[in-house]
Amino acid sequence: MSISETARRPGAADRLRDALPKLVLSPTVAIVAVFVYGFIAFTFYLSFTDSRILPSFGWVGWQNYENLFRIRAWDTAVANLAIFGLLYIAICCALGLMLAILLDQKIRAEGAIRTIYLYPMALSFIVTGVAWKWFLDPGIGLEAVMRGWGWESFSFGWIKDSDMAIYTIVIAAVWQTSGFVMAMFLAGLRGIDSEMLRAARIDGATNFALYRRIVIPQLRPAFMSAFVVLAHMAIKSYDLVIALTGGGPGTATELPATFMYSYTFTRNQMGIGAASAVIMLMTIAAIIVPYLWSELREKS
């Protein structure tokens, strides 16, 4: 064997160095495979069984899904999700875009204002729910304060009203997340070519036309990212609802996530709860998979 071939042959140290990243990551990969994807697969299986208080292996096929769509509480949860999701996404995007445009004007104390807007995102949804529950409670919150100041006719009891309670969830969720959406849009605005904007201004474009024809169309990736993030957060919303309204009054603020928990762990209908969890997972996948596919196609 020649000296050059001996030099090219990797030694034990080289092989160890090449294998070290795989060795370090392998426990994490194994844990994720078992405790994430393994339990997802197990949930799929349970949705086709007669599981009740504990997992069972009696196969019932699509019966749980048929029963799920006959339950009025599930219909209520889906309708509430439609209201909550549409308002949550629309208001967060509109408010986030306006705040981003405001900060993009290079105003004073931009850093401090950006921190204030982003601060709610650092809180957990449980903290947000409890804080807004106190604020909206007619006995100790906004209504009590306004009446204490002399406005005796002031009334704001949405959190106790079955027709309006779902909108209190929207208010709290928008308050927490709009700053995060603002940061996404602000990053997109800062990435737009300033020379293009300068050329448009020289050509006589007004600010309104500038944003409508140039700026906002170039924020399409930010809009798509915001939509995907907000949509999946809306579908899996649980802790905010539990902390703020507990799903009430009645089932007025019931969402699929609270329905899934209730039927799985409270009503001992694990098969139906697993079926609702699978429906939620498929809905999230229907949003995320096309987005990832389009992003990968653009990069390729």
Automatic annotation (TrEMBL):
GO terms for biological process: transmembrane transport. The keyword Transferase does not apply. It comes from Limimaricola pyoseonensis. It is a multi-pass membrane protein. Belongs to the binding-protein-dependent transport system permease family. InterPro entries: ABC_transporter_permease, MetI-like, MetI-like_sf. Keywords: Cell membrane, Membrane, Transmembrane, Transmembrane helix, Transport. The chain crosses the membrane at residues 23-48, 77-103, 115-135, 164-189, 210-235, 270-293. This is Carbohydrate ABC transporter membrane protein 1, CUT1 family. The keyword Phosphoprotein does not apply. GO terms for cellular component: plasma membrane. It is found in: Cell membrane. Residues 78-293 form the ABC transmembrane type-1 domain.
